[in-house]
Amino acid sequence: MPSEVTAGSQRRLRAMLAVLGVLAIAYLLVRPRLAALSRRTQALRQANTASEKKQQGLRLAQMESQRREQALRTRLGAGIATEADYAELAFLIRSRQPGEALTLLTEGAAKFPQSASLQANLGLVHQEAGVLDEALTHLKAAHALAPQDPRAAALLANLYLRLDWLPAARHVLDSLSDAARQDPNVAIARADLVLRSGDARAARDLLEPLTQAPGAPPSVWLLMGKLASLRGDAAAAVAEYEKALKGSPDSPQIRSQLGRALRAMHTPEATQRAVKLAREALAQHPRDPLASRSLGLALAEAEEYDEALEYLLPLAGPKQLEEVLLTATARALRAVGRKGEAKEVAARAARARQATERLQRLTARANVNPRDAEALLGLAQEYLLRDDRLMARLELGRLLEVRPNDPEALKLLKQAGAGPQ
Q: What is residue 315's DSSP assignment?
């Protein structure tokens, strides 16, 4: 009997040891996973803490902004607001109340007619709204009031560059003192000017020091992205545009350039990223044709042709003269079996290429000689063909400075609507 008890105890002991051995092996096997899970949990907890701190910081900043806005409104109501108060209040509210911001700046400029800062801000608000003729008027006024003010000069030069009026931009920037040229905004405008003039190396030399400075503005990375695109390095362009987008996440221009660089990589991953980016942009700006264009082109690159056409066809109307958009539309139509329409759009894409070449030649002539009246007239006619009445008016304004009361210019100005003279 005792031997049977002893044998039973030994069997139970061996069984327990076997179970413990299995558990020990199992623990050794899962220990790395448990450690990884612990690390992930800790990282998630830290991320949540960081997110909470960020949200708290944003709430505090919003409260401070609201407090400051109320204080400024009180000063305006009491009639003791300075020109800086008008400018600051307009800046605080312009994203959510652009109309009121414009009204405030207009009132401030009337009250302080010698304020270059308020004129510059008026120009900036009009430029952001796409009212370039009004923007030009105010930015010229700001530069005239303060010819050596780096901000006013950079804003005016940047608008001239946007219009492709290179000699005008060069004149503004060359008129600045050596001290004013050290301003980062002026250096960025100079880099853009020399890049558009064809000197990529000089542009890089101007931009490189700015990339080393902490908190470089998005426009630096935007130009660095353009430089990378010009040398055919799509991956490097994407990296630079990502930096620009981080500094200005709502910029349609940066999103468009990033999407273009992603499409140029011609990889499934990059194309899907371009589609995702364009969808986000369109969700934020549902009426923005640039966002619709970007999404349509990205979907065409992803070979999602049916959906691509939903965005491309409304933009590919009879007056559309953008070759890239028309070519993508023709390819999408061909892919879905609409061959007749594809042939017609492809023919228009070929004509658009010729029209673009004409525009480029005329722009080059006007940049070589800003008083070339025939080139300016040709530019106005080309823009009217594109139904771009704003650019036509601006070019006609330049023409009338060269040839006052020119009958052909005045005739075209009526077609384009009232504009600067």
A: G
CA atoms of 164 and 166, how far apart (whole Å): 6
The answer to whether the beta carbons of residues 298 and 278 sit under 8 Å apart is yes
Cα 71-251-90 angle, rounded to 5 deg: 20
Alpha helical stretches, state H, 302-370: 305-312, 323-335, 339-368
| Contacts of residue 239, Cβ cutoff 8 Å, sequence gap at least 6 | 228
Where along the chain do its domains lie? 316-357, 371-421
pTM of the model: 0.76
pLDDT digits (tens, 9 = 90+) for 13-60: 676 766 666 666 766 666 776 676 677 777 667 766 766 776 776 677
Cα 172 to Cα 180: distance, rounded to the nearest angstrom: 12
253 vs 349: CA distance, rounded Å: 23
309's tokens: 């056409």
Q: Which residues of 236-261 are buried (b: 16+ CB within 10 A; e: fewer)?
A: bbbebbebbbebbeebbebbbbbbbb
**Phi, psi dihedrals of residue 316, rounded to the nearest 5°:** -95, 45
Read off the tokens for 61.
Answer: 């900043």
Residue 312 in tokens: 């491309």
